[in-house]
Amino acid sequence: MDSIEAELKRLNINPDCCKGVVKKYWDNVAGAIAKRCCKQFARVKEALQQGWCTNPTGLFIKSCKENLKPIKALVDTTITEWFNWAYKNRIVIAMTGGHTAFTPDGVPVSLQEMMELYPMPQ
After folding, report:
1. How far apart are the first and last CA of the chain?
2. Which of 10, 52, 62, 102 could anchor a disulfide with 94, C-beta 3.0 to 4.6 Å?
3. Residue 42, H or E segment
4. Does 122 fall in a domain?
5. Are residues 58 and 83 in the same domain?
6. On the CB side of 122, how many CA atoms lie within 13 Å of its CA?
7. What are the CA-CA distances from residue 80 to residues 51, 73, 102 (Å)?
8. Domain span at residue 28?
9. Degrees (nearest 5) of the Cα angle 58, 44, 95?
């Protein structure tokens, strides 16, 4: 737990707000803590680097609860296939940085959210 708290502090996440979530969703957080590659930490790091996260504590909590992976963990070909399909079906008009899609009316939405809202038919 000390290594988790240290990593949370390093990412400017309030560890006191996260203790209950970490305990409740331990299976989603515990992966590879020693190597500092827990996917929830990776998701927050990625979001901070790309500049689309204004609430790292909230993103970490959501990532733990929903077991979300970093966007980069998605296979690039899957993203490309989905985007091409969504573009042809006028669901999106553009994508930036592999993390944001734009709806036909120009509203930016996270790519992961769009892919969940509009799954590509198999």
Report:
1. 41
2. 102
3. helix 39-50
4. no
5. no
6. 0
7. 22, 14, 15
8. 2-69
9. 100
Average pLDDT, the chain: 80
DSSP designation for 51? T
Nearest to 46 by CA among 6, 18, 11, 81: 11
The mean per-residue pLDDT over the stretch 1-27 comes to: 83
Question: How many Cα atoms within 13 Å fall on the side-chain side of residue 21?
Answer: 22
Q: Comparing 42 with 1, which gets the higher pLDDT? A: 42
Do the beta carbons of residue 64 and residue 40 sit within 8 Å? yes
Q: What is the DSSP letter of 30?
A: -
Which comes out higher in pLDDT, residue 8 or 110? 110
Report the pLDDT value the prediction gives residue 114, as an integer from 0 to 100. 93
Q: Indicate whether 51 pLDDT > 90.
A: no
35 & 49 share domain: yes
Q: Write the DSSP string, 91-122.
A: S-SEEETTTEEE-TT--EEEHHHHHHHSPPP-
